[in-house]
């Protein structure tokens, strides 16, 4: 039975977090707030739960969800061949609305879909999401919406689209307000997705922004240098919302979760990358 919890009320927050942990452990879905958009989350290491997430959104395995993580140290546990430029970017922008696509650790026992050996990762800047992640570990998180529909910035909007396909909804208020407040990319609450798989072990190659989001190209260039960024081109559009990369943040964003992003060599204008939830919604 679906339950919705107002996380501004301490007793509901505690009950909601307890039920969310239990749902994730049982392979069910949970909607969570992120700093970008609301994300629908599943145990990243349960193939059945990830498939349930894709089915709930009406997405194919060719649009794998991003993964939200609780901290920068988790980066090395899930990805390999991490360029120094990525470490610099996450040090600057995590937690926050940046999703990075990297080569996945080949030893990982998971099935996120047709990732072609990549994974989109984001650490969201939302205390509810981070608390849940600290207790469950990495979560596959795509934006909490039906494929082709606008990303949800409230739990109510997510519930209207996903209904009882989700076991627990954690209502953390309107998502994306931090970015609205600072005025970066007004009206855009998805995470920015950067594909880092084009950087070689020797540091040669380029980073590619495959979805513009809350963190501008100019801010990324200020950190790593314009010369390291591939020339601008048509980026993934609004359907690439944060849960998949879209990496809620996710992401989320995202983003999400905030939250959607595609594998590096499979990104296209009609394929969602985060929300790998921005938050994923991801």
TrEMBL record:
<dbReference type="GO" id="GO:0061710">
    <property type="term" value="F:L-threonylcarbamoyladenylate synthase"/>
</dbReference>
<keyword id="KW-0547">Nucleotide-binding</keyword>
<keyword id="KW-0067">ATP-binding</keyword>
<keyword id="KW-0963">Cytoplasm</keyword>
<comment type="similarity">
    <text>Belongs to the SUA5 family.</text>
</comment>
<feature type="compositionally biased region" description="Low complexity">
    <location>
        <begin position="255"/>
        <end position="271"/>
    </location>
</feature>
<keyword id="KW-0819">tRNA processing</keyword>
<keyword id="KW-0548">Nucleotidyltransferase</keyword>
<protein>
    <recommendedName>
        <fullName>L-threonylcarbamoyladenylate synthase</fullName>
        <ecNumber>2.7.7.87</ecNumber>
    </recommendedName>
</protein>
<feature type="region of interest" description="Disordered">
    <location>
        <begin position="235"/>
        <end position="282"/>
    </location>
</feature>
<dbReference type="InterPro" id="IPR050156">
    <property type="entry name" value="TC-AMP_synthase_SUA5"/>
</dbReference>
<dbReference type="InterPro" id="IPR006070">
    <property type="entry name" value="Sua5-like_dom"/>
</dbReference>
<feature type="compositionally biased region" description="Basic and acidic residues">
    <location>
        <begin position="273"/>
        <end position="282"/>
    </location>
</feature>
<feature type="domain" description="YrdC-like">
    <location>
        <begin position="14"/>
        <end position="215"/>
    </location>
</feature>
<dbReference type="Pfam" id="PF01300">
    <property type="entry name" value="Sua5_yciO_yrdC"/>
</dbReference>
<dbReference type="InterPro" id="IPR017945">
    <property type="entry name" value="DHBP_synth_RibB-like_a/b_dom"/>
</dbReference>
<keyword id="KW-0808">Transferase</keyword>
């Amino acid at each position: 039975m679906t339950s919705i919890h107002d996380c501004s009320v301490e007793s509901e927050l505690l009950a909601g977090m307890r039920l969310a942990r239990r749902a994730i452990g049982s392979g069910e879905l949970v909607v969570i707030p992120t700093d970008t958009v609301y994300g629908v989350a599943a145990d990243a290491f349960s193939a059945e739960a990830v498939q349930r997430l894709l089915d709930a959104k009406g997405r194919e395995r060719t649009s794998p969800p991003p993964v939200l993580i609780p901290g920068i140290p988790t980066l090395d546990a899930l990805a390999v061949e991490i360029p120094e430029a990525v470490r610099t970017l996450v040090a600057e922008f995590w937690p926050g609305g940046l999703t990075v696509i990297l080569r996945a650790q080949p030893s990982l026992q998971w099935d996120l879909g047709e990732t072609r050996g990549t994974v989109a990762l984001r650490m969201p800047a939302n205390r509810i999401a981070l608390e849940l992640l600290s207790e469950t570990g990495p979560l596959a998180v795509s934006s909490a919406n039906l494929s082709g529909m606008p990303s949800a910035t409230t739990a109510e909007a997510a519930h209207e689209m996903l209904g009882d396909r989700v076991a627990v909804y954690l209502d953390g208020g309107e998502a994306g307000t931090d970015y609205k407040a600072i005025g970066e990319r007004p009206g855009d609450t998805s995470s920015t997705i950067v594909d880092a798989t084009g950087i070689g072990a020797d540091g040669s190659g380029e980073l590619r922004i495959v979805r513009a989001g809350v963190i501008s190209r100019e801010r990324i260039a200020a950190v790593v240098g314009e010369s390291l960024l591939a020339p601008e081109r048509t980026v993934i559009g609004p359907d690439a919302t944060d849960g998949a990369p879209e990496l809620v943040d996710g992401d989320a964003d995202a983003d999400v979760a905030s939250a959607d992003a595609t594998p590096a060599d499979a990104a296209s204008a009609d394929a969602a990358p985060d929300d790998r939830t921005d938050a994923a919604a991801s």
